[in-house]
Amino acid sequence: MAFTCASSVFCTIVPPHLLERLARHEDPELHHPARRSLRLDAEHRDRRRIAVRSSGASKPSPGADDSPRRTLYDARHHQTLPGTEVRAEGGKPSADASVNRAYDGLGATFDFYLTAYGRHSVDGAGLPLDASVHYGEGYDNAFWDGSQMVFGDGDGKIFKDFTIPVDVIGHELTHGVTQFSANLTYEGQSGALNESVSDVFGSLIKQYALRESAQDADWLIGKGLLEPGVHGVALRSMQAPGTAYDDPRLGKDPQPAHMDQYVRTSDDNGGVHINSGIPNHAFYLLATALGGYAWERAGRIWYDALTGGQLRSAADFATFAGVTVAAAQARFGDGEEKQAVLAAWSGVGVTPAPHGAPLPHQAAAPEGAESAPQG
Fold first, then answer.
1. Does the predicted TM-score (pTM) go above 0.85?
2. Quick one: fold of 11-179?
């Protein structure tokens, strides 16, 4: 049975294969945190499956407006969630930098989706954004569990505090966007698309916050997360999948950039964190071909494809590619954008599947919303 992030699986930023490698390391300062992290991940995964099978529904949103509803909690290195409330929406900054980074990252993600695409929170209807910091002892991950964000502090040897990179926060919250839209099945190619969509919008959220063009962006996921001494720059590279790290403790980044190198494995739900490199690179090719701010045209096409109602949950790469071609044509016509989408997928060895009815135009951004951030 396939499980989805929306219905039965919680989604983490660090791939299991990295933690499994660290769990086998002879150094107890590496293998103890990794083993604890893997155990906690497995427990959350099981609880998520049971909870959704019992309830079958997400908590209702209180109604959409143009402001986030953020609540930050401190787990105080325990595993009971959410922990103690430490900062609410509009509250004063905390003395705890992790709390403030998480609060700001939730806000940056909310602002991006609202101003770029007119979306109110991850569900489109004002879902409150809750997050817990300081989860567990040396917990080597961050995750979205279907209702909230959770951040570990890292082990201090390989990983730093997971609140540091804003794209990690954007990545995990975008799993919520997928949960409430296409609900991509978290297995095989649809699972790799689920992970890729989170990488795409995580990167765009960082670019938006920094006012970076596609040409100026680093296209790295998790830059700043690795401790000094680790031979690597990030968890993943969209520009050059397979080059993010090459470290004796972590191994070499296994992501492919082309279907010729597609990895067939039963691990990690069919390699969802590995094969996501292929659609990641397709988006990079599209964004840099179109230039300018990547969220305006390339990101809009991906957002329309994800949320337009035409994408089935079990979509493979070819199906998703076909929906993006249809989305480009529906919004921009037969011009540069559509041709760039076709070229991007060709560049990674994916032939878009024929798509039936054209996608309807998505609702325009609300009056007064910026198509590009000013500042």
1. yes
2. Elastase; domain 1 (3.10.170)
- 10-residue mean pLDDT series, the chain (375 residues): 44 93 96 94 70 43 80 96 97 98 98 98 96 97 93 97 98 95 94 97 98 98 97 98 97 98 94 97 98 98 97 96 97 97 98 68 35 31
Provide φ and ψ at 166, rounded to 5°.
-65, -25
| Number of Cβ atoms within 10 Å of the Cβ of 62 | 11
Q: What is the CATH number of domain 188-347?
A: 1.10.390.10
8 A C-beta contact, residue 202 and residue 221: yes
Phi, psi (deg, nearest 5) at residue 235: -80, -35
Active-site annotation holder among 134, 171, 175, 273: 273
Question: What are the extents of the domains in the chain?
Answer: 11-179, 188-347
CA distance 171 to 188: 19
- Which residue in the block uniquely carries the two structure tokens 């103890």? 32
- Catalytic residue, chosen from 44, 120, 134, 172, is 172
The answer to whether residue 273 is catalytic is: yes
Query: Among this protein's residues, is 25 annotated catalytic?
Result: no
